[in-house]
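Re: [ENG-882] Designed sequences occasionally contain unexpected residues at chain ends

Forwarding the minimal case from QA. Structure tokens:
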């Protein structure tokens, strides 16, 4: 089963994802309204989130070394992280403890260091190994659907991974919370390296709080 893939992000009027204050309430409220079975992030974004919002020195507890029970009636999404280089070795317990997700699944490749794979095995993190030098994202998402029954994935990450999702024709929908600010040069821009032209069809444009607008586009394929 191949899941539906939605890119969700908060951007400035000039498509930046940094250089302004994101309204996290609006961002995650809109994300959860999409009812994802999984929320996808790249390892760089995941590590940055820990550094910005958590005490990165907090050690791993014994309970963190074991996979929590996943109940069939738990409607929370799975946290899925692309990490073929083992960037999050020693840090995944922060995501295991997040209250808004029920499990952590890691996407790795054939070149992922064996010591990172052993770290995942020892701590009972499910992982999907797909791709040679880097994660074959399309193949990994198909396996995610097959193994975990995920029918909808929402990408909540930075430009690099979202560019791959666009370039490889994986995205079905783009959901943007547009903030009323122009940040100018020097900030990370969404879809700056997304490849060639991609046609979109507007699904909705909803004014929100403080001048923000929620735009949802279907990707024409």
């Amino acid at each position: 089963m191949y899941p539906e893939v939605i890119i969700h992000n908060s951007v400035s009027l000039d498509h930046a994802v940094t250089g302004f204050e994101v309204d996290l309430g609006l961002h995650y409220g809109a994300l959860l309204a999409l009812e994802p079975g999984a929320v996808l992030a790249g390892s760089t974004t995941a590590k940055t989130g820990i550094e910005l919002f958590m005490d990165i020195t907090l050690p791993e507890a014994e309970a963190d070394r074991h996979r929590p029970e996943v109940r069939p009636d738990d409607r929370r999404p799975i946290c899925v992280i692309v990490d073929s280089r083992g960037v999050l070795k020693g840090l995944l317990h922060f995501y295991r403890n997040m209250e808004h997700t029920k499990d952590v699944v890691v996407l790795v490749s054939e070149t992922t260091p064996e010591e990172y794979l052993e770290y995942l095995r020892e701590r009972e993190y499910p992982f999907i190994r797909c791709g040679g030098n880097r994660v074959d994202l399309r193949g990994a998402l198909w396996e995610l659907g097959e193994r975990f029954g995920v029918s909808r994935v929402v990408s909540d990450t930075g430009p690099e991974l979202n560019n791959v999702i666009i370039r490889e024709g994986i995205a079905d929908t783009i959901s943007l919370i547009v903030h009323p600010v122009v940040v100018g040069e020097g900030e990370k821009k969404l879809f700056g390296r997304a490849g060639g032209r991609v046609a979109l069809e507007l699904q909705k444009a909803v004014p929100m709080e403080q001048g923000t607008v929620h735009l949802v586009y279907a990707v024409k394929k």
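QA comment: On inspection the terminal residues look reasonable. The longest strand covers residues 4-11. Proposing we downgrade this to a documentation issue.
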